[in-house]
Write a structure and sequence with these properties.
The protein is of the alpha+beta class. It folds into 3 domains: 58 residues; 119 residues, Jelly Rolls, CATH 2.60.120.290; 128 residues, Sandwich (Jelly Rolls), CATH 2.60.120.290. It has 5 helices and 19 strands. Strands 2, 4, 7, 8, 10, 12, 14, 17 and 19 form a 9-stranded mixed sheet that branches. A 5-stranded mixed sheet has the order 1-3-9-5-6, with no helix packed on it. It is elongated and about 105 Å long.
Length: 353
């Protein structure tokens, strides 16, 4: 009788130990799974993009699907995008395929790479995108990461126009900041026979700065005989400068609250030009366009639309990765603990009853 009871006790102990170990192994295995792949589409007028876990060190990618995080910025037509990257700290190793990289593309297909960032830097970088779509990619190639907290960047929508004030009409822009580019830019060459005029109008107490981001007109030996040229000045009666060919102009600063632009083309074509204007003299928050954008964002009544976060991120992604994994593991741990107790009771009845 005693021997039979001992055999039963050994059998129950082995079964109980196996079930308990198997349960904890499953919990541990589940807890080591990487979080849901990062990246999404952002449609808000302003927003932030951060590496996983920021400002804490980001985890290395465990699965291949997590190695590339892709964010697509898609805003309404007739707008441009300005991206500001204040700092970044990425894992970098000279060995092949052992470095992490932040990539920024000037299109929504992630095919036209504009900038690539490796290592670390604390100097603020501004990336201008002339169209209404941009792509941000974070590529994690390194197998481990110690101490590198990744990046945080912000984006905002600004005014942009490629329309032409033709037939002696003037296209007036009044926003505090924006882009102007030649018709067709950047996807195609400008047409022949253009005669375009733009007026950048600021408040009386302001001045205007113009920075050329790209300038590619048809080749000529002298601007005096150029058929394709751009003029800029404080008045449309006497322009201050005339630009041609592919020599990018210097930064222009107005003497008053107006800047006039005149673009004319002949029988040649090329990529064209792209410039950024900005008014100086009052806070940017007073920008009429930005006010309209803010009201449009507030219309939905949610903070997510102003920050660029997807609606599902407000609750589900507010938890840290560690908290999320702990909660999942605890959900699994509880059933296995209950099952272990039940097995123990059954074994006790089997042995002693």
């Amino acid at each position: 009788m005693r021997k039979a009871m001992d055999i039963k006790l050994v059998i129950c102990t082995v079964v109980f130990a196996y079930c308990l170990a198997h349960g904890f192994a499953r919990c541990s295995k589940y807890g080591q799974r990487s979080p849901k792949a990062c990246g999404r589409t952002l449609t808000a007028y302003r927003g932030e993009i951060k590496s996983p876990g920021y400002p804490h060190p980001y985890p290395p990618a465990i699965r291949d699907v997590d190695r590339v995080c892709t964010w697509i910025i898609a805003v309404p037509e007739g707008r441009g995008v300005k991206i500001t990257l204040p700092r970044y700290n990425l894992n970098y190793d000279n060995r092949e395929d052992q470095y992490d990289e932040l990539q920024i593309f000037s299109d929504g297909l992630c095919s036209d790479k504009d900038k690539s960032y490796l290592g670390n830097d604390t100097e603020t970088s501004v990336i201008n995108v002339p169209t209404n779509m941009a792509c941000v990619r974070f590529v994690r190639r390194a197998s481990e990461n110690i101490g590198h907290n990744g990046f945080t960047l912000s984006y905002e929508v600004i005014s942009a126009t490629g329309e032409c004030g033709a037939n002696q009409t003037v296209l007036t822009v009044t926003s505090d900041e924006g882009y102007i580019y030649s018709p067709g830019y950047p996807s195609s060459s400008y047409p022949q026979g253009l005669d375009c005029t733009w007026l950048i109008q600021a408040d009386p107490e302001q001045i205007i700065t113009v920075t050329f981001l790209d300038f590619q007109l048809s080749y000529t030996t002298s601007c005096d005989y150029a058929t394709d040229f751009l003029q800029i000045g404080n008045s449309n009666d006497t322009y201050d400068f005339k630009y041609c060919a592919s020599n990018k102009p210097e930064r222009f600063e107005s003497r008053g609250s107006q800047v006039w632009l005149s673009f004319q083309t002949g029988r040649w074509t090329n990529k064209g030009f792209w410039l950024k204007y900005q008014t100086l003299g009052r806070p940017l928050s007073a920008d009429p366009m930005n006010s309209v954008l803010s009201q449009s964002g507030n219309a939905a009544g949610t903070e997510n639309e102003l920050t660029g976060e997807a609606p599902s991120d407000a609750g589900k992604r507010s938890q840290s990765t560690e908290e999320l994994l702990k909660s999942r593991a605890s959900k699994l741990h509880s059933p296995f603990l209950t099952l272990s107790v039940l097995l123990f009771i059954l074994c006790f009845q089997y042995v002693y009853l």
